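Entry 14. Two folds queued back to back today. First construct below, sequence then structure tokens.
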Amino acid sequence: MSDGSVQQRQSQPAVPLLEEQRVGEILAAVPERRHWRYRPRRVGMVWRSRTFRVVAVFTVLAICGLAILALVRDQTGTQGFLVGLGLAVLPVPLLLTAFRWLDRADPGPWRNVLFAFAWGAFAAALVAILANSFATRWIATTIADPSNADTLGATVIAPVVEESAKAAAVLLIFLFRRREFNGIVDGVVIAGVTASGFAFTENILYLGNAFGEDQQIGSSGVVSVTAATFFVRAVMSPFAHPLFTVLTGIGFGLAAACARRRRIRRIVLPLLGLVLAMGMHSLWNGSAVFSPYGFYAVYAVFMVPVFGLVTWLVIWSRRRELRTLAAELPAYAAAGWLSPAEPLALSSMRARGFARDAARRQYAVAARGSQYTPYGPGWAPGSIPGAVPGTMPGSVPGPSVQAAQAKAAAQAAEAHGKAAARAVAEYESFATSLAALRLQARRGTTGPDFAERELELLHHLWQRREVAAPALTYAAQATGLLRPHRLPPLPYAQQFTPPTGYGAYLNGPAQAQAHPHAQYPGPGSVPGPGPGPGPGHNPYLMPQQPPR
């Protein structure tokens, strides 16, 4: 070894030896925080902030919205923009209501719906109008016959650009909200809402331009271009754009139901749905080019049957989701988490609605019986719960005070009824998510956090069990699912108090921490209570109860 290398090695500073008895003495020499020269680097912490992501996404959508509305107003004029906006809003509630109705078995969060609609109305529409305009000008300057530029742009360029832009919203929710994207119904709803937003902005442009044409030629009324455009786009074909993009949503829904190991299917199915959406969109846009009656032929022979087929597929998928509840939830009923009648009621939309109505009605009645009413039994001066401004304790309230107290009691009773119905609705939603989670586990599409997610859902069910379980049991009997010889009285006799916290559990979290090896119902097995207190005991399981 050369002298230079030896000298270099000797010049290196020595590393302090770690001695456990001297750790405190060594670290005590570290300067105070205000004198630190090195601070931890927060790599990617900004992007991990949920608030930052939400603000960033909606800021981008807001900018896109301002840009697209400015472009549309520039093309249609102020009056045309206002007329187009007023007419384009009319079919939107119908479309959103239809898609939310399809998703009522396991409704997704409203934030996904709002994001999808905003993406379609602003981001996708902005991309489409800019790309289509550029493509049309490019075609007009490069082909021999510039008169065909609009036709080629509408039948070739527009379907590819518009369907790709709309599919981006479905892809984003599929990637970043994967737990809320479970199957065909979720794909159809997100795709349909995105396309509804896109059609809304597009209708503003078409209706505003039609109004401008009417202003130039002086026509109005039923024979105007505006009325004809509204009839074609909002009456005859309000589901045109949603129908195209729904094919993409079906592809993503099928991919969501595939096992994680089926990577090729999870990539090919969405692409196949996107290609079908582009092809159908191209056929629809080019229908008027085929012949004067090409539009009506494509509408009657192709669009209507496809619409019926897609509607049947979505309804069949929703019924399949309900059958999943009847197949997966009995395992939890056997473990004592649910009563035996609850899986039957949860698998019927009619029984679900009946349970919510019964809970609302009965808890409102119970609240009226427990609240003060000036004409009810047990009334006495000074027995009014709470002070009433302008009255002395022990005095008999006047007619106006009595009316105010009666109104307050009615409002309190209505609030109790609504709270009970909301608790039942939340219980139904969590139970549906639990059945879907268990089905995903059997298919191998869940991640390693299955047990944590399952326990969280069981916690939410337990919090609402006191209110929802009797309502669902009675609904199963009243709707004929149990076919009893005689219906029992409604099982509501106490005032509803929404439970909060882990205190709603039978044993509480302390015992759960004391038994970390508790046995929970796993996928593909029928869970049961543990062998008793000890390492194998599950403090959350309760003994099975007979049907009420």
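Second construct, same run, same settings:
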Amino acid sequence: MLLSATPPPGPRPAQEVRLYEEAARHRGLTPPRTHPLASITWLGPAASNPALAHRVGGDPAHLAESRRWIEAAVRLPHWGRAHMPDHDLDAGWLLHHLSLAYRWIGDELPDGVRALLRYKLLLQGRRMYENAVASEGGWWSSSYWQNHNWICYAGLATAGYVLGKEEWTERAKENLGTVLDLMPEDGSHAEGVVYWRYGVPFLAIHLDLLQEAEGIDWWGRGGFLSRTFDYRLHQMAPGFTFNVDHGDCHDRRSGHSAGLYYRLAAQYGIPEAQWMGDLASGELLWQEAAESGVRPGILPEAYLEYLWYDPSVAGARPTRTRAFFPDLGLLAARTGWDDDATLVSFKASPGGGHKAWETSAKHRAERGWDTLDQGHHHPDSGSFVLVSQGAFLAVDEGYSNRKRAAHHNLLLVDGQGYADEDRYHVYKDLPYERQARQRDVLVTPDCGWAHATAEIAAMYDPGLGVRRLDRTLVFTPSGRLVLLDLAEADTGREWTFLLQTDRPTEPKPDGSRLIRSGTASALVRQFAPHRASVVSEVTEVTEVEANPTSSAPELRLTRTLHTLRATTARSSHGLFLTAITPGAEPVAAEQVVCAEGEGVAFEGETVLLSPAARRIRTTGVVADAAAVLLGGDGCAPYVVAATRLELDGRLLLDVPEPYTGKVG
């Protein structure tokens, strides 16, 4: 498709209009005569989009526009100035786009321009190739789970196919095969949604080039590409406009890639991806373009939308409301997809996810290579994001350079977050054993329960003697949230519960706290501990500042987090039992009196938990289980890791091995 500029057959009027608009968007700008300090990635699509538009429609104005930007790019002695000139993202982007422009309109350029463009592509491709060879085992050349790897090798591959440089394409192909084999089969991405939309399209670009140039179909290799739309889908906030901002996210809007949605829809027959492509390139397009913090952003993808859109794929609005991605330990659950629905996203995993953590450890031991560059993965295992009524209520920090657990909805031990944090790459050089994980996961397709327990004790300084720090999260069918935090240490510690919001929480007479965000609200009720010191504050540690790209050193992003803190008296054991009820008129939550275990009851829904002892004893319920979940529009009970359940004197379950699911 890309090399020949040949899209799937059928009409594409909307995509053609998009292409022509994008081809003309920069006509009022003067190309730079010298290299700016900021990134020049945008120069590539400024040339390639009008090149394709001319090829499609034959308008000489588009040809002239493409030539204008080609000449600007080729006269720059280096591609990239502030960081790794000729060897990183600027060069990767320009190699890809200008190589396509050369392929599409090279024969129509004046001889001198064509010769200069070819020379420049050969020069920049050689620089990129030599750097990839020299830096193997260090930076992006072998950082298989990282967007720099995918973008730079896709750029090198594009130039290699266009210029006939087999040495380049073979090296890029070998890397692509490794990446596809090592990416998680569940489609998740530890860098977060913003870097998913920035980097993953280049994996699809490389696969497209490989298939067209060499007849090699690797679209099914490894499983990541076939499932990654599902990951992206379930990290959308209700209403589809905003994204859940786990990982480094410049903002809550930069997440859509209509071109990639179309390519995944066409390749794997995903109707929801086709529907999302139409939405992202239509109704959502200009607001994302205006408010996105990512550049070049969504508009330059017009060439991909045109060439990857397959009109034979029927679109369908998403309906599934629950998903779990085991590699990243990511649980996502929602009450629906409309703007006012409620969503929770809850995660816990080793740095980069389980597969990256395991494989990179082998690379270090066997080759002496450092292949896990996860500077965009935060110390956030056990944290969650809550969205409801069109607003973010329990929030994440977004982008940061000095990453800390205290910037997330997490727990501190004697005021301390994760060991070796407060730096950009918080997982670099950590011991292999420093891993978090999810266990006891329940995702129900019918009545809407979701449950998981995050084990995060290993993430804290061993000197603190933390033996257990488990967070259990339950999302009810009505969108209410129950959190149970269990902590144990070798000696007495202060345990601190953190809840981050965009505005300060408001105290209520009954001791609960109200979260407000615009017209949205939620009530936070903490049942245990009874004598916690509760403070709502904005402090210096929650002023989060970041420079999201070394290519633009002057760029700064700042976010202020309002932090609700609840700290226990010093003890070797800690327990927090918290209910969060979204809604303008939140349904009251009450603590269930339990002889063993902990419980919270709402109108029509009851959550009973015992994630460690697995013994629940209360009025009407006798269970050997991690959880018993009751209610939800007359649904049968659900249990987690249960061997026995008696309900109102009736024996409903008695099995030798722990069972998770519906009972009856």
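Quick look at the second one. The first strand starts at residue 322 and ends at 325. The chain has 14 helices and 28 strands.
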